Every structure is written in C-alpha cells, then in structure tokens.
Amino acid sequence: MINSKLFTYLCVSTFLDTLIIILKMKTEIGDLYIHSFSFTQEEVKKFAEITGDMNPLHLDEEFAANTQFKKPIMHGMLSASIISKILGTEFPGAGSVYLQQNIEFLRPMYVNKEYELRLVIQEIHPANHSAIIETTIKDTTNKKMTIRGEAMIMNEKYF
Predict the structure, then answer these.
(1) 88-119 burial string, b = 16+ CB within 10 Å, else e?
(2) What are the pLDDT digits (tens) for 124-150?
(3) Which domains does the chain have, with CATH numbers?
C-alpha cells in the first residue's frame, strides 16, 4: 500500500511538471528537437505499395546490387516523411499545418540503419502563427547529413 503523503507528493509533483510544460507552450527561435529513427524493408515495401512507386532500386536486392548504391535504398520521400510525423505529433505537435518544405536529398538512406532528425526553429511569425524550421537528417554512424531543408508550418497554439 502506498503512503498517502508520498501519493500526494507524487500527484503534486506530476501536476507541477505538467503545468511547467503547459506554461511553456509557445516555442522560441533556436528551440531544438532531436528524434532518432530507422525504417525496415517491410516499411519500405508498404510505402511502395501505398504510393505505387515500385522502383526496383528500393525493393529488389539483385537490381540494386548492379547500381552505384550496391543495395536497395529507401524512397527519399519515405525518409523525409519522418519530418511530417514529428512536426504534427511531437514538435511543436498536434494542430500543426505543414505549409511548405524545401528539401535536398544529399545521400542515400538504407533500411535498418539509425538516423537522427534535427529540427531547429529559425523564424517565428506571430501574426499568422507560423514558423520556419530547419530540417536535417544525419546518419548516426558516420555523422554525414543525408537530408537538409526548411519547413514552414502553422500552429495557433505554439506560434
């Protein structure tokens, strides 16, 4: 059985932690969000089925072995889709509307490999509740950038 004083402390502590998060709902220039991720070949296959992009470079090991990449690479847009996921669900979060994305695909990305998404708020435009966010993805093994770009999103709650 839990001690009632300890239970009260835990509830108050949790409440205060939540309150601090709620009070800092507005984001600021320079705020950084980092998210590690990877994709499986099964996810690449599902993406190909959903989009209709059945390019054998993504799906066929034998075909890919005869290319400059030597093995299947992920679809660029699957790789970049992690940006949309995080902007809409975690940073800044629910209610975000993706308005624009400039993107450069710098290097191939492969399944079952760890990558790191970094989002940094560059500009905030309070008049229209929007922000410009730098978007980069790096290979966590060699630290080389695979994707870079800039997103514009709108979110009344956070900007």
Answers:
(1) beebbeeebeeeebebeeeebbbbeeebbbeb
(2) 999 999 999 999 999 999 999 999 999
(3) 29-38+76-154 (3.10.129.10)
